[in-house]
């Protein structure tokens, strides 16, 4: 009887061990990391997270919009673990509201601007002063009041001393992808978007790259969001380390970004 009892106890303990291990495995595979990222990062972040999901026991929920919209969403309670901003202004906005782990904030990418036109356009732009010509009536940019791409575009045009001349031509879009769609749909003559956006569209052609010092340095920043309930910190920090790895940098560079 004693031997049978010992065997039964051992079998029960083994069963419990297998059950706990499976439950732990299942729980880890259900880890969700929620990312709020600038619209210009849509394609590259989707690719990077898809690759990361295959190699790690996590699932990503990606939310893309203008950096300003995302920052305001997070302040209002939107559930995000990581924030990727296309400029420092909106990262500072979140930081000042106590919504980020300050020590996690860092610049991880750079970009430039590109003047684009519909694929079949005959316009030839050699310098920014050409934008003042009468045959150019509409230019799409991100809304310069809050969209980073539009803020950079306006500053570039001011630096070129033509903003006052073409301000009325500029049509503000809710984010940079929308600004590019206006060009793709031929509702405007030209657009000013990030170089990385221009590179992925088959419906536009690149006419003129705007680089420093005319264009301010375009910095993308990342940070971990401070909140009561989030994915386990280890999973978030592991991913944040991954986006700075050589493997991730190659993907960013494939899309035209300059990785730090």
What is the end-to-end distance? 69 Å
- What ranges have pLDDT less than 50 throughout 5 or more consecutive residues? 18-28
Query: What fraction of the residues are assigned to beta strands by DSSP?
Result: 15-25%
**Radius of gyration, rounded?**
24 Å
- Secondary-structure arrangement, i.e. CATH architecture of the largest domain: 3-Layer(aba) Sandwich
General description of the model:
The protein has 260 residues and is an alpha/beta fold. It has 2 domains: 31-110 and 219-259, Periplasmic binding protein-like II (D-Maltodextrin-Binding Protein, domain 2, 3-Layer(aba) Sandwich), CATH 3.40.190; 113-210, 3-Layer(aba) Sandwich (D-Maltodextrin-Binding Protein, domain 2), CATH 3.40.190. It is built from 10 helices and 11 strands. The protein has helices at residues 2-29, 42-55, 67-75, 88-96, 148-159, 163-166, 176-184, 195-200, 233-242, 246-254; strands at 31-38, 58-65, 82-85, 106-111, 113-118, 139-142, 170-173, 190-194, 204-210, 218-224, 258-259. A 6-stranded mixed beta sheet has the order 2-1-3-10-4-11. The protein has a 5-stranded mixed beta sheet with strand order 7-6-8-5-9, with helices on both faces. The radius of gyration is 24 Å and the shape is elongated.
């Amino acid at each position: 009887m004693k031997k049978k009892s010992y065997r039964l106890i051992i079998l029960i303990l083994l069963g419990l061990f297998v059950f706990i291990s499976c439950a732990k495995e299942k729980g880890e595979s259900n880890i969700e990391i929620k990312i709020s990222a600038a619209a210009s990062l849509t394609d590259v972040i989707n690719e990077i997270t898809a690759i990361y999901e295959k190699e790690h026991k996590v699932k990503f929920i990606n939310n893309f919009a203008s950096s300003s919209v995302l920052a305001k969403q997070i302040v209002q309670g939107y559930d995000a673990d990581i924030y990727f901003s296309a400029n420092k202004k909106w990262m500072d906005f979140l930081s000042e509201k106590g919504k980020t782990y300050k020590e996690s904030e860092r610049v991880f990418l750079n970009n430039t601007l590109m003047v684009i036109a519909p694929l079949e356009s005959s316009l030839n732009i050699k310098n920014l002063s050409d934008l003042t010509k009468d045959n150019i009536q509409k230019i799409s940019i991100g809304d310069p009041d809050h969209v980073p791409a539009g803020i950079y575009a306006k500053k570039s045009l001011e630096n070129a001393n033509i903003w006052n001349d073409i301000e009325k031509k500029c049509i503000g879009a809710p984010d940079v992808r929308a600004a590019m769609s206006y060009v793709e749909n031929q509702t405007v003559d030209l657009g000013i978007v990030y170089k990385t956006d221009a590179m992925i569209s088959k419906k536009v052609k690149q006419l003129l790259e705007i680089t420093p010092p005319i264009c301010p340095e375009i910095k993308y920043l990342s940070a971990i969001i401070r909140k009561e309930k989030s994915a386990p910190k280890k999973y978030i920090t592991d991913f944040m380390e991954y986006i700075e790895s050589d493997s991730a940098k190659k993907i960013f560079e494939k899309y035209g970004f300059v990785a730090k």
